[in-house]
What does this fold into?
Amino acid sequence: MRKYFKYFFYLYVFIGYSLSNAGSYDDFFAAMHLDRADVIQKLLVRGFDPNTPNEKGVAGLLVAIQSEAPKSALTLAKHPQANLNVQNQLGETPLMLAAINNHLELAKVLIQRGAEVNKTGWTPLHYAATRGHREMMRLLLDNDAYIDSESANGTTPLMMAAYSAPPLAVKLLLEEGADPTLVNNGNASALDLAVRVDQPQSVFYIKAFTEAWYIQNPIKEESATK
It folds into this structure.
């Protein structure tokens, strides 16, 4: 009899624990969608895992940023056990999502706590340049973002800015040393992309800086004979 009592006791404890966790899980994501950082903080204090994924397998921090829940995202980003470089199915990190959505305070916290500013392929700087978030771009560059980083198809942040951002974002990258002569895998340069979207001011900046670039980096003619 004692044996069966012990079995049912542990079963009861296990079921109670599972139900408790299930409730915490629902509360966690419900609070996130309402941006109730106070509720999330209480769950974390009780031991809830900040890296818990939703039903689609997306980590909580990424869900918070994508759900436009800035206070919740900050709370999770500050947690010592949070995975700051977790990626979604597209390879996007919390810093990349913060960059494209211009969440400057969150980006500062992520960087201070060790989030990767540079990565293979698309980078946070690509994402910031896409929307022309200049303050975000400066923050990333001030923290050693590689200005001419190339995606898998050879696209640089300057190319993204030339194609889809305001001219001042293009100007910022050029002033910070972006190489205007690079081309992507489709043999298109930043200038080509600015022309394609009919952005005359960006075209002006790129042409001017390209001319200056060639003055500073003259092409060395190979001697005809050795």
